[in-house]
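Q: What does the assembly look like in three dimensions?
Context provided by user:
Components: two
Sequences:
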Amino acid sequence: MTEREKDEITDHELARVGESLARLSPEKPPHDLVARTLERISQEYKPVKRVFFLLRPITHPLARLAAAATIILTLSPLTDITVADHLGSNIESRIIGRHATDRIELFVDKLLVRNGAPAYTQEDLDAVIGIPRPVFMPVRQRGSGQTVKNSQI
Amino acid sequence: MTVAAASIPGPSFIAGLSPARARKQVEVVEPADEALFEQSLNGDREALGRLISRYEKSLFGLLVKMTNGDRHRADDLFQETFLHAMRAAATFNRKMNFKPWITAIAVNLIRDDARKRKVRGEVTLDGSTADEEAPRVAEPVAAGENPGESAERRDEEAYLRRALQKLTLLEREVVLLHFYNGMTLAESAQVLGVPLGTVKSRLHAALSRLNTLLEHRQE
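A: Here is the predicted structure of the complete assembly.
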């Protein structure tokens, strides 16, 4: 207690009571209190490694709602095909590049063909839509190098 | 943190120095509470052990007196205090002192515990319980004090303890923090989370009440 604070208790009687309190004998802690406290902490507390803040899990309920709303608002413009197309072509031309895009498309096509056998043929599709399937016939060469139209065969 | 040179078995280079020099050396060697806490958070068990040892007497003593002498509750609350401190490390302001912060955690735990006990019907918030018969450590006779004086002192102390139990929890907090734990009024205000003026008025009210109780005894 500093002198200034002592002066704040101007009543002599009250100051005397305060001094009696200050003279109260200290409590002797159990001899193994520190060891038991350490043991309890080591059982229940595991130090958390520092993780970059963007990679930490969001634990607060309101923060989770805010994060979900942010994701929805960010992605919602992509439901408009014009915006998505514009964005896709920008990514293709400015970020990924034509060559890389082609390779990715090729890869995806192969993957789809290999892993997912088509459940219908083009003929089936055309029939459903109602397009009469044209009969494609080979275009053969005449002897002089002239071609022959389908109608002429 | 200042540590009395005499109480430290200390490195050999301290031997042979004057007490003042030795104390300065010890101050240099002994890391601050805040530094020890930082090391504890990084998994340094030894640093945590040293930190707990530093607060063993003062914090345990405060808890025993706040719980009206219930040493078992104080033991549990002491462990809880450091467990909460480790969990709530993110709320520790590095510019703040560790002592008021850890004491504030202890005080809040006592309040929570008292509230739960009140709900369960075990205790009233102003503290009167069956803890009065909690065992006390036998006080040795102080140097230069004859057994008669010692017995009288113990008797007075026992009466003061009983008088303390008659205070409300809020009053008991403020007198114990200030007089028993040696905190300044500003630190007490920080621990209790109330303005300085409130601490002063509570302290005055508590001392007046204690004074009245002690006067009744003399009558």
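Follow-up: Residues 1-14, 125-138 of chain B have pLDDT under 50 and may be disordered.
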